């Protein structure tokens, strides 16, 4: 069923396990992620980014499809809008039925990020929807990798108190869109932030982090683990191999199935890992 983010994130946090949050680019992804979560009987976050909405040209068709996948799932599934810089898009996702949004004001001047985040929180909370926000920009969103940004524990505590956000994305050494998994996380900082703020923490750019790196981050206090690029890497590799071996195939179902199968297996492996730390 479709559930809200706060309940599943809080329960993961209290159990000290990770909550897998995977980006839906195509409908096939949402279907594969749900199958993986059902196989393990664990909750899942299906997230749709503002960029993915832009790719599809509109929120509604892909958004409705995600909601249908969540409602039909045998495990708790959150429909979450990811990296929305557009407040109007946050509103439209909530009106469509999304149970959670990430308002990303991390590129704004600090004061403006705080004010707009607080407004989004007020609007969403009135409608029973949770909000994730980002403090200290996690690099790589514009193609430039900058793993040096850091969120200070004091700033994080004040930001959460000022804005009322339900989850906080922090900069601790990861960077978005990495296709290799060598990012080094600052686990001591994760520990300090986790002690300073009462809400579950979110790791962005987890594709750049190794399996053991993610496990250490979860042990240090990270809860929601966002993975996108890594799944595109395994999907594309599988499709490429399939097409190279079968150059006569023209039916996209055949090569998409090849990609979806490895994505499902990889998500199962990751979810199992997050729940075994
Ligand atoms: O919000 C989405 C994530 O932070 C995904 O980042 O593509 O580097 O895994 P990634
Ligand atoms: Zn992100």
TrEMBL record:
Binds 2 Zn(2+) ions per subunit. One is catalytic and the other provides a structural contribution. The keyword Transmembrane does not apply. GO terms for molecular function: aldehyde-lyase activity; zinc ion binding. One of its GO terms (biological process) is carbohydrate metabolic process. CDD domains: TBP_aldolase_IIB. The active site is at 82 (proton donor). SUPFAM superfamilies: Aldolase. This is Fructose-bisphosphate aldolase. It comes from Boudabousia tangfeifanii.
């Amino acid at each position: 069923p479709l559930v809200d983010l706060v309940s599943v994130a809080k329960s993961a946090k209290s159990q000290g396990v990770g909550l897998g949050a995977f980006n839906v680019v195509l409908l096939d992804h949402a279907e594969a992620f749900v199958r993986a979560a059902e196989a393990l009987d664990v909750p899942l976050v299906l997230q749709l980014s503002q960029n993915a909405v832009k790719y599809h040209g509109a929120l509604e068709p892909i958004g409705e499809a995600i909601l249908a996948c969540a409602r039909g799932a045998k495990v708790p599934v959150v429909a979450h809008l990811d990296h929305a810089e557009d407040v109007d898009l946050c509103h439209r996702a909530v009106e469509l039925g999304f149970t959670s949004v990430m308002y990303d004001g991390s590129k704004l001047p600090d004061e403006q990020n705080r004010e707009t985040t607080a407004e989004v929180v007020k609007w969403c909370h009135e409608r029973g929807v949770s909000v994730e926000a980002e403090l200290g920009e996690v690099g790589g969103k514009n193609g430039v990798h900058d793993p040096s940004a850091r969120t200070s524990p004091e700033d994080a505590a004040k930001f959460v108190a000022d804005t009322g956000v339900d989850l906080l994305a922090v900069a601790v050494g990861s960077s978005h869109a990495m296709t290799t998994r060598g990012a080094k996380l600052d686990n001591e900082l994760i520990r300090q932030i986790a002690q300073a703020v009462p809400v579950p923490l979110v790791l962005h750019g987890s594709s750049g982090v190794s399996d053991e790196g993610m496990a250490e981050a979860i042990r240090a206090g990270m809860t929601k683990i966002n993975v996108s690029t890594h799944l595109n890497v395994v999907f594309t590799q599988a499709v490429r191999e399939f097409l190279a071996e079968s150059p006569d195939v023209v039916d996209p179902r055949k090569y998409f199935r090849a990609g979806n199968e490895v994505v499902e297996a990889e998500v199962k492996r990751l979810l199992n890992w997050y729940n075994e730390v």
